[in-house]
Amino acid sequence: MSDTDISRRRLLGTAGAAGAAGLVLGAGGGALGHAAAAGSPTALSTVGSTSVAFHGEHQAGITDRQQSHGRLAAFDLAPGAGRREAAALMRRWSALAAELMAGRPAGDGDTGVALDAGPCSLTVTFGFGRSFFDRTGLTAARPEQLDPLPVFSADRIDPKRSEGDLWVQIGADDALVAFHALHAIRRAAGQAAGPRWEMGGFNRSPGATGQPMTARNLMGQIDGTGNPKPSEPDFRQRVFVPRDTEHAWMAGGSYAVVRRIRMLLDDWERLAPDAQEKVIGRRKSDGAPLTGGTETTEPDLEAVGPDGSLVIPANAHARISAPEQNGGAAMLRRPFSYHDGPGEDGAPDAGLLFVCWQADPLRGFVPVQRKLDRGDALSAFIRHEASGLFAVPPGAAEGEYVGQRLLEG
Ligand SMILES: C=CC1=C(C)c2cc3[nH]c(cc4nc(cc5[nH]c(cc1n2)c(C)c5CCC(=O)O)C(CCC(=O)O)=C4C)c(C)c3C=C
Ligand SMILES: [Fe+2]
């Protein structure tokens, strides 16, 4: 996929909207505004009028710019619901997502919550968890990539907030639009599926920074610099399942690993700024490697300081997670931050809804997390509290629904 493919998916009000929001994945701006914005007296801003297409080769919400509001939710099929009910559900959900992403209401029973807003870059992305295949009698069609993730030594995973038959990722540049979309999805589930868990997150608002820039997380770090770029020749191969895959229904799809990672912010903030930078191996101010340059300068992993020690320490997070240190393993990270008030311990229940995308988690998240688990300086300041692994089918063509090739294959 080229950058142009990505920009074609997006119908941007102006290039300015894209710039203000920071196109971390390098998509260019198109020129088409949402109809509601076209010269009417109640014209929407570019933030409101920007829409993302539901139909396409890949589902939306993978390579699209991170929106300012995210909602992640898992659903379980109802007792007695099987393949037929799941197919009908995916047909309903896909039709609904296409309407909502175009800025149209959720049918007759629309609650009116998003009434005055445009699409606000809404994306709705659907995935299937491991248990979905047993529930629908499709175990033979389940890829080995959905085998359970290993248990890592530092995991503190809450099963009630993990996994699930179906996964929905919602992103939008407006909190009400994001809420409205998930609420409509939940209502449309009807008797077929019920909620298992839900998490809300956020990123910078479009226009908050003077110029487009990579996101910052709640530790204050620039986070996303090393992501694979659409302009790189192996981008597609890293993120999307190839055409010749054994399970043809997943060709053009991707695997999402979702981890709710709490940041132990009180401990982190006790560290001096230079110690914080050594934990990551990059400068906090501008994300440049500790060996110098700018955010996009390649780190010099061999460089030593006057005292003979490595400038980027051996246990620095960015060193350990780099593809060169992991046999080329890479993933596209597209997280949301979260803050759910104080935890039971009184410290902030805040951190990262870490969502990463790859063609194969066994050549993406798993080897990298294995290595981080063994000796990442960041480990002392984070705790993985929930986990999910989902197969995200390719995008649906016009008239199709997401997962149709699996459910009707
Ligand atoms: C298993 C995968 C990863 C987890 C889990 C993870 C958690 C995590 N990371 C940060 C902050 C940063 N990560 C950075 C780089 C980076 N992280 C991963 C993987 C995981 N991170 C990768 C593959 C990379 C890129 C490495 C490279 O290509 O050089 C950085 C540096 C800037 C950047 O490249 O994004 C920061 C900062 C936190 C806070 C966190 C858990 C809460
Ligand atoms: Fe990281």
Overview in brief:
Its main location: other. The chain is an alpha+beta fold and 409 residues long.
Structural description of this entry:
- Its main location: other.
- Its EC number is 1.11.1.-.
- Residues 279-304 are annotated as: Disordered.
- The longest helix has 19 residues, at 83-101.
- This protein has helices spanning 3-9, 15-21, 46-49, 83-101, 130-135, 175-189, 235-239, 265-269, 273-280, 317-321, 365-375, 404-407; strands at 10-11, 51-52, 69-77, 123-128, 166-172, 193-202, 254-263, 332-333, 336-342, 348-358, 382-392.
- It is built from 12 helices and 11 strands.
- A hairpin with a 5-residue loop joins β9 (336-342) and β10 (348-358).
- The two termini are 26 Å apart.
- The strands form 3 sheets. Strands 7, 8, 9, 10 and 11 form a 5-stranded antiparallel beta sheet that branches.
- Helices cover 23% and strands 19% of the residues.
- It is an alpha+beta fold.
- The ligand C=CC1=C(C)c2cc3[nH]c(cc4nc(cc5[nH]c(cc1n2)c(C)c5CCC(=O)O)C(CCC(=O)O)=C4C)c(C)c3C=C binds next to β7, α10, β10 and α11.
Secondary-structure blueprint of this entry?
Elements: H1 3-9, E1 10-11, H2 15-21, H3 46-49, E2 51-52, E3 69-77, H4 83-101, E4 123-128, H5 130-135, E5 166-172, H6 175-189, E6 193-202, H7 235-239, E7 254-263, H8 265-269, H9 273-280, H10 317-321, E8 332-333, E9 336-342, E10 348-358, H11 365-375, E11 382-392, H12 404-407
Antiparallel strand pairs: 1-2, 3-5, 3-6, 4-5, 7-10, 7-11, 8-10, 9-10
This protein binds the ligand C=CC1=C(C)c2cc3[nH]c(cc4nc(cc5[nH]c(cc1n2)c(C)c5CCC(=O)O)C(CCC(=O)O)=C4C)c(C)c3C=C and fe (ii) ion (FE2).
